[in-house]
Design goal:
The chain is mainly beta. About 10% of the residues lie in helices and about 55% in strands. Strand 22 and strand 23 form a beta hairpin. The longest helix has 26 residues.
Length: about 425
């Protein structure tokens, strides 16, 4: 088939247009020209440069000086002194931008920074501009952005951060290992291929993180590890047992997690291969939850607790005064516990186990439906279908059993039935 002259001309025009657009994008992405003032053709000093997308204000930066070279769609600048980026509704999403080594592509309306950037991501739904800084009368705290490299594309409303990235919040710093992507329209930050979260009190690592800025929660996944550091300044009013626990670091592992931030207190949910580990202690579960406000930790489904010793359950003075050999022996044995749910209430210092509880030591096994242990009183209560088997032969059945470690007493109530086997000798 032969092309007419009109068709050939139309294809030439379309082809040239595509080449210009694609060429500008490729030039912006791969341009490695030094941002130097040699070869200036146009120079702008101490001024604003403003970008528009379909007639709407898209971004605005203040520069000391900017210039153009042979490619008139490319502007270069030594330094941005301040700047803002808007979303489609005209809200300020990112403000307080400062950077060095800037390229501005006016054809595809993009900004590229290769020599360090700082900015502030605003989480509130509405802000108004005061100069080039958003007003501060908002309840939510902004995220401070630091990055060696930053690219912004107005057509996709996305910011790409690379090398030396830090997302700084009041209580912690998020450090993506291989950059981050910010979607300005949805106000979501995507972190792939590894991250660290660092603070004075804890450290977190994982493979992926999605931060929902306005909702103030994050999704984490992939080989998650949470470490709570051992306390350095311990309240002297705490008892010996609590001091000992706070002097130990704690580790939490999981496949996935959701972290909620709140002024009243943060909350963490974890799922999949949950493992809590302290020296001499380990707990396995399928799901877990911690509420900072209530100081409650909850673990659920397929609970398995391994304890090298029970000495941590009593303070030293109580242990020194024990006379019951059976209790002394129990404190020094390895213990394995299985149940359906585990709850520790830090405010009352009580631990509650529920559902098909089985406690195994070398010389005894205890079964019950519910168990409550009070750290403050050193009293253990067992409820419902309680059964104690000693040396694989002697047993006690009851509906309620109380073990008072301080008084060294065992008390069974309600429906008590016991069975003892006497030695022939």
């Amino acid at each position: 088939m032969k092309f007419t002259i009109q068709k050939q001309y139309l294809m030439l025009v379309v082809g040239m247009s595509l080449a210009l657009v694609i060429g500008s994008f490729i030039y912006d992405f791969f341009d490695s020209q030094d941002i130097s003032d040699s070869g200036k053709l146009v120079e702008i000093t101490q001024s604003y440069i403003t970008g528009y997308d379909k007639g709407k204000l898209n971004w605005k930066v203040s520069v000391d000086n900017a210039w153009a070279k042979k490619n008139r769609s490319m502007y270069y600048a030594n330094r941005i002194t301040s700047g803002v980026i808007y979303n489609a509704e005209g809200d300020i999403i990112i403000d307080s931008i400062t950077a060095s080594g800037i390229k501005i592509n006016t054809k595809i309306n993009s900004i590229t920074i290769k020599e360090g950037a700082m900015a502030r991501f605003m989480p509130q739904s509405k802000t108004k501009e005061t100069g080039l800084i958003a007003q501060e009368n908002v309840s939510k705290n902004p995220i401070i952005i630091k990055s060696d490299e930053l690219r912004y594309y107005s057509d996709s409303e996305k910011v790409y951060l690379n090398k030396g990235v830090e997302l700084i919040k009041d209580s912690h710093v998020i450090k993506p290992l291989n950059g981050a992507e910010i979607d300005n329209e949805t106000k979501v930050v995507y972190v792939d291929n590894g991250f660290h979260i660092e603070s004075d009190e804890f450290f977190v690592s994982g493979n992926k993180m999605v931060i929902y800025i306005d909702e103030e929660f994050s999704k984490l996944s992939g080989n998650l590890m949470f470490e709570r550091y051992a306390s350095e300044n311990i309240d002297e009013s705490l008892d010996e047992q609590e001091k000992t626990l706070r002097q130990e670091s704690s580790l939490l592992y999981a496949d996935e997690g959701v972290f909620y931030e709140s002024d009243e207190g943060d909350m963490l949910y974890v799922t999949g291969n949950v493992r809590v580990k302290q020296p001499d202690k380990e707990i396995l579960a399928y799901t877990g939850y911690y509420n900072q406000t209530t100081d409650i930790m909850s673990l659920n489904k397929d609970i398995s607790i391994s304890l090298d010793t029970l000495n941590w359950a009593l303070d030293q003075s109580t242990k020194d005064n024990l006379s019951n050999d059976d209790i002394k022996n129990s404190l020094n044995q390895k213990t394995r516990i299985t149940c359906h749910s585990f709850v520790f209430d830090g405010s009352t210092r009580k631990t509650t186990l529920k559902g098909n509880i089985k406690i195994v030591q070398s010389d005894k096994t205890i079964f019950c439906n519910k168990l409550i242990m009070s750290d403050e009183t050193s009293i253990v209560e067992c409820f419902g279908n309680v059964k104690v088997i000693k040396d694989k032969k002697d047993s006690i059945k009851t509906e309620y059993l109380v073990i008072d470690l301080n008084k060294e007493t065992f008390t069974a109530k309600r429906g008590v039935y016991s069975e003892y086997h006497l030695d022939e000798n």
